[in-house]
Amino acid sequence: MKRLLLAAALTPLAAGTALACEPDFTGVTLTVSTQNGPFVASAMAMAGQAWEEKTCGTVNVVEFPFGELYPKFLTAMSQQTGDFDVIGFTPAWLPDFAPYLSTMPESLREGSDWEDIHPVFRERLMVWNDEVKSATMDGDMHMLNLRADLMQDPDEMAAFEEQYGYPLAAPATWDQYYDIAEFFHRPDEGLYGTAEAFRRGGQQFWYFFSHAASYTNHPDNPGSMFFDPETMDAQVNNPGWVRALEDYKRSVEFNPPGALNNGSGDVRPLYAGGTVAMNIDWADSGVLGATEGSIAGNVRTAMLPGSTEIWNHKTGEWDSFDEPVASPFLAFGGWQAGVPADSRNQEAAWDYVATLTSPEQSGIAIVTANTGINPYRFSHYENIDNWLEIFTREEAESYLSAQRASLDAPNVALDLRLPGFFSYTEVLEIELSKALAGDVTPQEALDTIAQEWDKLTDEFGRETQLAAYRASVGLPPLE
């Protein structure tokens, strides 16, 4: 990879030259762990090489399947085994992990590098109970990826407008999204309308949440997407969620064959290889399409579609808006690095995290294919020249502006963060898979999920969960 070569070129030790270790962590070995690579693990390994060269310490990256991370990390930290010095994990687990993580040193919470992190990550996703317990190392949100060779083709544009009565462009609503998917769905030509992930265990629920945000994240009722923020009653079976699941299930019709078996890692090559006209994914699809696919030069990125109707859980009615309301969903929220409190190398571990998330090191990772690292710093969005080695300028401008616009959107939807997240989403995936397979109706599946979520909330403690949920969505405690 070009950027891996660049990383090697940046090595501070020239042949025959010895530089002082600064800071000096000679003899210190850090055990750094995350999911199986190349995604994320390769970025942590690259940062490990840079940190070793600077400090003379050693980094050992240990990888596990994604499904094993949560129990392995939680068990090790709660039993104080000292197995890990740095862990790479999802923000959704921070409420469960926070009691066992050390707090970020104050020295890392000041200065230009700190202010360079977008506030959505810095002030929301890295914080639990008013303490900074993790460091964002990846800025994740779901985006819509499109192909310019199709979307800007004069013949396709004319045919689309004749058929649907409006110009072909990035869809502002889900109805428009399905028009475009239908228009380009041409199995006889080996072209399919879109690609999304549907496989249980393949991060399917984040794709479903991306649909649901548009119909449930009401701008006048903050925090009402997943639960009623006054009572903690599950909202997952209201009409907004039902419409979202009907939409999500409809997407299968315009996917390539076997779509129900596709996880997030499968939708990327479908887009990059030109099999589909568009896909929904994290920003990794754009980098892959520009560097290793057949659509190089034609990568275009847009915010997720919105809706002119959003369910109001307080009135029990649909509210209509004159223009589509964009509710871009920060799916996953980006990988985070944390230092367990039982680490015997906390000073070195946080110094490694500082290297991993530095503007310089992260600036390399975001433009290296298959690192899984996406922008999260202002400098990542503003330094467009950094992207021109992999993108054309038009691709880069589209890619970066769509992500920045999503983060800055007034009605941006944050992902679910709650103690017991793993239990809530496990229940959801079971019933979601039944609905996608046609074994139950969308309403039946969501009713079951709501009942099970309410049971879980009561088991964890309704008042405790309500306080945690309100904090996670930026609402003050109830008086």
Verbal overview:
- A five-stranded mixed beta sheet has the order 2-1-3-13-6, sandwiched between helices. It has a three-stranded antiparallel beta sheet with strand order 8-7-9. A two-stranded antiparallel sheet has the order 4-5.
- The longest helix has 19 residues, at 442-460.
- The N and C termini lie far apart (55 Å).
- The chain has helices at residues 2-9, 41-55, 66-78, 94-97, 112-115, 119-125, 148-151, 154-164, 174-184, 204-216, 239-251, 264-272, 284-291, 346-356, 359-365, 378-382, 393-408, 421-437, 442-460, 462-472, and strands at 29-35, 58-64, 86-89, 127-128, 131-132, 135-136, 143-147, 278-281, 299-302, 307-312, 317-325, 329-330, 336-338, 413-414.
- The chain is built from 20 helices and 14 strands.
- It is α/β, with parallel strands linked by helices and 479 residues long.
- The protein folds into two domains: 2-139 and 332-382, D-Maltodextrin-Binding Protein, domain 2; 142-327 and 390-479, D-Maltodextrin-Binding Protein, domain 2 (3-Layer(aba) Sandwich).
- 43% of the residues lie in helices and 12% in strands.
- Helix 12 (264-272) runs parallel beside helix 13 (284-291).
- The model is unreliable at 1-18 (pLDDT under 50).
Quick overview of this protein structure:
The protein is of the alpha/beta class and 479 residues long.
